[in-house]
Amino acid sequence: MNNDLVKLSAESVNLWFGSKQVLKNINIDFAPNQVTALIGPSGCGKSTLLRAFNRMHDLSPDARIEGKLVLEGQDLYDGHFSATQVRRRIGMVFQKANPFPKSIYENINYGLKINDIPKAERKGIIENALKESYIWDELKTELDKPATRLSGGQQQRLCIARAVALRPEVILMDEPCSALDPLSTLKIEELIVKLKKDYTIVIVTHNMQQAQRVADKTVFMYLGEVIEEGETKELFNNPKNELTGNYVKGRFG
Ligand SMILES: Nc1ncnc2c1ncn2[C@@H]1O[C@H](COP(=O)(O)OP(=O)(O)OP(=O)(O)O)[C@@H](O)[C@H]1O
């Protein structure tokens, strides 16, 4: 891919937990302002790859990474960045919404504080992040209420607001809708499509319809390897690899 069209990439990435190799020679380029879905059967390494971009394996003493994970030409592991700096530029939303046991306001304010955003700016940023995440109208009169009292779908949109408040360049989403009802799922999907105007988004999903609804590109992984990647429509309707075809048609997984 032309370098101007690459926001984030994995270059010859191998990853082990102890002696078990979980990622094998992964090469992927993620284009800016696009949504890319990572699909593949359970255990194929999707979350592990996503987490590697966010420096989440720093805390696993048995994790070993070879190769490069690159954001705009800069290696995320070459000592240039701290994990906090990486996470400011690459936000993450998890499978289960994980609001802090604090108020709605404080959930977003906390990240702003630890990233030294001046106090005078925080209120406006919080309002914007909630608006951007389509949740302001629902929550504007109860910002002081505990976030844990929100519905699962609202909690997940709050977590997305928490991520966007820091103005990351990339948002990684690890099965963000798997714990949600169909209506909340639809709202998050609409939000994802809207957010790609400003962010590069990578989403892990087991939901084939979801991948087709939200993703411009799709990457199919199997046993730690990338088997096929391409335009979502193409990969689903005209897969080049038999394994991909069997997976997207639901024959295994
Ligand atoms: N911290 C860890 N220590 C040891 N092994 C791990 C660790 N994290 C993941 N693994 C192993 O790595 C492999 C890949 O797991 P991963 O969670 O990346 O798969 P996945 O494709 O995201 O699966 P799922 O769709 O079920 O979430 C699995 O065999 C898992 O047990």
TrEMBL record:
Domain ABC transporter: 8-248
Single annotated GO MF: ATP hydrolysis activity
Cross-referenced CDD domains: ABC_PstB_phosphate_transporter
GO terms under biological process: phosphate ion transmembrane transport
Superkingdom of the source species: Bacteria
Record carries keyword Transport: yes
Pfam families reported in the protein's UniProt record: ABC_tran
Keyword Membrane: no
Name this polypeptide is given: Phosphate ABC transporter ATP-binding protein
